[in-house]
Amino acid sequence: MAEAIQPLEDLVKKATDLFKKEFGSDPTHGAVAPGRVNLIGEHTDYNDGFVLPMALPMVTVALAKPNQDGQCRLTTNRYTYQNLFFPDPKNTFFFSEVGGENHVVEFKLANIEKGAPKWANYVKGAIANFHDQDKIKDGFDAAFTTSVPLGGGLSSSAALEVATYTLLEALSSSINDKKSKALACQKAEHDYAGVPCGIMDQFVSIFGQVGHAVLIDCQSMEASSVPLNDPNLVIMITNSNVKHELTGTEYSERRDQCYAAAKLLNVPSLRFATVQDVQDKQSLFDKDQVMYKRLRHVVTEIERTTKAGELLQKQDYETFGKLMIESHNSLR
Question: Which CB contacts under 8 angstroms, 24+ apart, belong to 320-326?
Fold first, then answer.
């Protein structure tokens, strides 16, 4: 059964209450960033292809106050998230490895090292990759809350990174351009969380707009808004009960196989392979049919995604839905 998403005002209040409880005063600065769902364009981002995600009303809220002691103190609360995504009360929402009611991570901004707990590494990475380090060196305290489920495939990590980076912009009064900001947040995930993600999640969290999807060219790194505001249209997101985790070996293996396939096809990336290449050069993959299936998926998926963007512009949702089904079947 579907349930209402937590209002932003409730999340801000929870973060404010947590901040006051932990640090003894009210926060002075705040930021928010959304999670996302990808409509079509699976495993195309790290192959320089196209993706078509949309930002969600599920968001991460970050509140902060300067502390002037060169230290960074982070806190979040731990509570059960019982709704459409995690109905099992044993599951916990956002930072499931945090012990106790809340947890504080403290470190010097002059020496940011990754470590336990894992959730703090996403924040540390965003801080370490902030474009204007001199303006945040005096230190700050920060509290986080979210309505983006952890491990649900809705990019809770990107929402946390982008919320953190946006918070730093507010604290420093130093604004980066959107593309550089997205790339900094992606680098945060690479370097501090150890996740070799593509650019999609951070880009849509930054470029997403209400009533629009975002068509992202992952080669040129250009993002364009695509209208998705028909009142008769509903995007339904369901829980598969499969935890989504990019740090596992399967994601890295698929990524490596795509790179190896591009090398066999003698193209810079699978973005430059054609459906005809896939058909004509199938014999190159006789010894690795899994690699061939993944190659075929990426090349055909890039084509499907560009068509999908055009169909949304025309409000041809029926044909768009057929492409989504083709995309799903292609991943089998």
Answer: 323/40, 324/39, 324/40, 326/300
